[in-house]
Write a structure and sequence with these properties.
The chain is of the alpha+beta class. The protein has helices at about 15-25, 55-65, 100-110, 150-155; strands at about 1-10, 30-40, 45-55, 70-80, 85-95, 115-125, 130-140, 165. The radius of gyration is 19 Å and the shape is flat.
């Protein structure tokens, strides 16, 4: 019998942090299932899911918490693996950078009953000017009563400067 764990990790970025984390996971016969990691504002941050034999769960959690001695803070959440139903679509949003874009997009998605499965965002200079462009790619689980057309119209209604592309 196994247990799924979701780990959030953060520390001052430096070589060896992923190795230290993966070593502890492997040492406890756990399987590294999925991860998202990045260098953000001089920090190393990530989310990792692992599957660990139930007998090793407590010792793995203790060992992960001891990684603070090498500068890596690890939080652990016990999770149940389940499969969500609905249509998954990829939503790309681009517009002039301003405060609140993610709040506005996520509020609209919530009102439609859509669930954000994955979100990646960044800012970069516009090709022909020095103005910053905000770009986001979201993987969204749509409820059965929400069409792609409804989703696209709702996001575009947020602001005239947002460009929206959908892929399913």
């Amino acid at each position: 019998m196994t247990q799924h764990l979701v780990l959030t990790v953060i520390g001052d970025d430096r070589p060896g942090l992923v190795e230290a984390l993966s070593h502890v996971i492997a040492e406890h016969q756990a399987s590294w299932s999925e991860s998202r990691m990045a260098h953000l504002a001089d920090k190393f941050a990530g989310i990792v899911t692992v599957e660990v034999p139930k007998d090793n769960e407590t010792s793995l959690i203790k060992a992960l918490q001891e990684l603070s001695s090498v500068g890596l803070k690890v939080s652990v959440e016990v999770a149940n693996k389940h499969v969500a139903s609905g249509e998954v679509v990829v939503l790309s949003v681009m517009g002039n950078d301003r405060t609140g874009i993610i709040r506005e997009v996520s509020k609209t998605l919530s009102m439609l009953g859509a669930n954000v499965v994955d979100l990646n965002s960044y800012c970069e200079p516009a090709p022909m000017s020095s103005e910053m462009l905000f770009k986001a790619e979201l993987e969204v689980l749509l409820p059965s009563d929400c069409s792609l057309e409804t989703l696209e119209k709702a996001i575009e209604a947020i602001s005239s400067d947002l460009v929206v592309e959908l892929a399913d």
